[in-house]
Design brief:
By secondary structure, this protein is of the alpha/beta class. The chain folds into two domains: about 10-130 and about 325-339, Rossmann fold (3-Layer(aba) Sandwich); about 135-320, Dihydrodipicolinate Reductase, domain 2 (2-Layer Sandwich). About 30% of the residues lie in helices and about 25% in strands. It is built from nine helices and 13 strands. The strands form two sheets. It has a seven-stranded mixed β-sheet with strand order 3-4-2-1-5-6-7, with helices on both faces. Strands 9-8-10-13-12-11 form a six-stranded mixed β-sheet. Helix 8 links the parallel strand 11 and strand 12 (about 295-305). Helix 4 (about 135-150) packs across helix 9 (about 320-339). The termini are close together.
């Protein structure tokens, strides 16, 4: 477990990426008790500097002894680097919060969303997994409903921003949009098809069962985070031409009847959730309004008239904030609180 201190030596691994940048900003904005911040990235970024609390910090490359003296390391450098370096960091006495898919389904590694299962942090052995962005915002909303009425089944369709793929994807959307509006031919490098003015029902690799890895992540991670394998989940994940903010359409079947008003009341008092639901006034969550915000917004809450105990809703959250950097920092905050 983390040793109690007034301030901590913190590392961000993958510091120059979109999520790494957001982690640095989130640590500063939330006034995390940082004694010293160290930044790591690939060799091509060595020597580059990034700003934190008014100081320029040089980016380093990882070495076997890099984690000596570091208390907490926030990883967002991909599964392969995490597979190699997270155990090295943990062996050095550092607690790793990893944003990649590498450790999420490992049975002995906690997969944590603090509003849902912070208690699982007590079981960590040096590595804690940060869930998939689309799963995080969904379980924050599902948790209070499950506690009140026991969820039997969830059908989710996601509308995911290109920032979930990274900076190159954001650049590709911008370039394709510019080219199309100027009657120029487009190039597809990041995605197999045009993403500008289009929707791609394809996130990550396709599996033998016809689902994508992203879809199966949502199925499996939800059960692990919620601590209930009886919840049935089916997902369709779609990439849309939005820069920042994932949107999701949820259909939830519960064991006990829950009215739309009861669901609104539950969610209004749920941590990390804002109910934004007055469709008669054109008020419902939008990706452009949620960018840069910490909370998960929920609206269009209504009863599913095709089944006895069903609810439909629309949820939106900033995938770089709550879907990645914020959740990782919140885990670190919980570790400090529990130390």
């Amino acid at each position: 477990m983390l040793k109690k201190k007034e301030r901590y030596v913190v590392a961000v691994v993958g510091a120059t990426g979109a999520v790494g940048n957001e982690m640095i900003a989130t640590l500063e904005q939330r006034e995390f008790p940082v004694q010293k911040l160290r930044l790591f990235a690939s060799e091509r970024s060595e020597g580059k500097t990034l700003e934190f609390e008014g100081s320029e910090i040089a980016v380093e490359t990882l070495k076997e002894d890099s984690f000596k003296g570091i208390d907490i390391a926030l990883f967002s450098a991909g599964a392969e680097r995490s597979k190699t370096w997270a155990p090295v960091a943990a062996k050095s006495g550092c607690v790793v919060v990893d944003n990649s898919s590498q450790w999420r389904m490992a049975p002995d590694i906690p997969l944590v969303v603090p509003e849902v299962n912070a208690g699982d942090l007590k079981k960590h052995k040096g590595i804690i997994a940060n869930p998939n962005c689309s799963t995080i915002q969904m379980v924050v909303v599902l948790k209070p409903i499950h506690d009140a009425a026991k969820i039997k089944r969830v059908v989710v369709t996601t509308f995911q921003a290109v920032s979930g793929t990274g900076k190159k994807a954001m650049d590709e959307l911008l370039q394709q949009t510019t080219d199309l509006l100027n009657f120029r031919d487009i190039k597809c490098k990041v995605y197999p098809h045009q993403i500008a003015f289009n929707c791609l029902p394809h996130i990550d690799k396709f599996l033998e069962n016809g689902y994508t890895k992203e879809e199966m992540k949502m199925v499996n991670e939800t059960k692990k985070i919620m601590g209930d394998n009886s919840i049935r989940v089916t997902a369709t994940t779609v990439r849309v031409p939005v820069f920042r903010g994932h949107s999701e359409s949820l259909n939830i079947e519960t064991g006990k009847k829950l009215s739309a008003d009861e669901a609104r009341a539950l969610l209004s008092s749920a941590p990390g959730v804002i109910v934004y639901d007055a469709p008669e006034k054109n008020i419902y969550p939008l990706a452009i309004d949620c960018a840069g915000k910490d909370e998960t917004y929920v609206g269009r809450i209504r009863e599913d008239e095709s089944i006895d105990n069903g609810l439909n809703m629309w949820i939106v959250s900033d995938n770089l904030r709550k879907g990645a950097a914020l959740n990782a920092v919140q885990i670190a905050e919980k570790l400090v609180e529990m130390a």
